[in-house]
What we know:
384 residues; alpha+beta; Butyryl-Coa Dehydrogenase, subunit A, domain 1; Butyryl-CoA Dehydrogenase, subunit A, domain 2; Butyryl-CoA Dehydrogenase, subunit A, domain 3; 4-stranded mixed β-sheet; 11 helices; 52% helix; 16% strand
Amino acid sequence: xxxxxxxxxxxxxxxxxxxxxxxxxxxxxxxxxxxxxxxxxxxxxxxxxxxxxxxxxxxxxxxxxxxxxxxxxxxxxxxxxxxxxxxxxxxxxxxxxxxxxxxxxxxxxxxxxxxxxxxxxxxxxxxxxxxxxxxxxxxxxxxxxxxxxxxxxxxxxxxxxxxxxxxxxxxxxxxxxxxxxxxxxxxxxxxxxxxxxxxxxxxxxxxxxxxxxxxxxxxxxxxxxxxxxxxxxxxxxxxxxxxxxxxxxxxxxxxxxxxxxxxxxxxxxxxxxxxxxxxxxxxxxxxxxxxxxxxxxxxxxxxxxxxxxxxxxxxxxxxxxxxxxxxxxxxxxxxxxxxxxxxxxxxxxxxxxxxxxxxxxxxxxxxxxxxxxxxxxxxxxxxx
Length: 384
């Protein structure tokens, strides 16, 4: 269960109630699920999790843009099932641009289906030559004659839900001369002719990641989410606004993984006996536990502060979200690593929850902006 006491100042009563409900669900339904054995199994389980989370209404905070609630849900899901957390994260990334754009046609087609777990979303920004430099997109979206539609060409890589998503929120260049101001944002149905799943990309922790390609893929004009003007667009701005909102929830997922690791480490330290006494009696173990708990609390405070600021109506939480994401993910890596050390041999057994966390937590320091990029964002905000 989530420890709401340490961040109670940032939560309303509904968030405390939600934490208890989603924590019970995660413990009862998600924690017993076996980790997928391979990429194929991960893809199948991700679709099953989508339906589970949708029917239980855990995606509703995304529709409501209640960022503290999104953090509460991700923290609980990540503690029990990193794959379930990834499913939630991608629904948010794929849906939020639709919510922010006010595109009624795309809302009508995809919003209810995504929130109810009937349609799987994906967020397609990263390319082989455009990762941290997200404005350097090579994929293009050209006008399709006078019909008002677009023709998409290019490759997207490191795309979560690639090959199993029902729709992709895609960023592509409409006018290369305008650089970041010449990027459009489009919702592309998975069955669009010319959209091809190229290959899976297999991670150490089961996750449906892959590469997709657009080969003269034609989409109607209503699929464009951003404002279009003089061949350019505001797609990049829409992408940044989405990340600005969702980024703190990545820190929440990190806290969930770290919290589970700390719980496992505490239980082991109390029960495991060496040299005639529990290893919890040894001061070096106590030092690790104390540092783990302190860092986890600090991370959670940064995360829920950022979400609280956005929920209070702050136009941007760029600084707060960057601090939360950077600190929480780095702290979680250290906490999980210390948990492995405390558990010793048990901590590296493939079927132990801590080993699964160890393989899962590493990606959080990279996706949605590496720690190094977050530090540059923080410094940039301070120097304004």
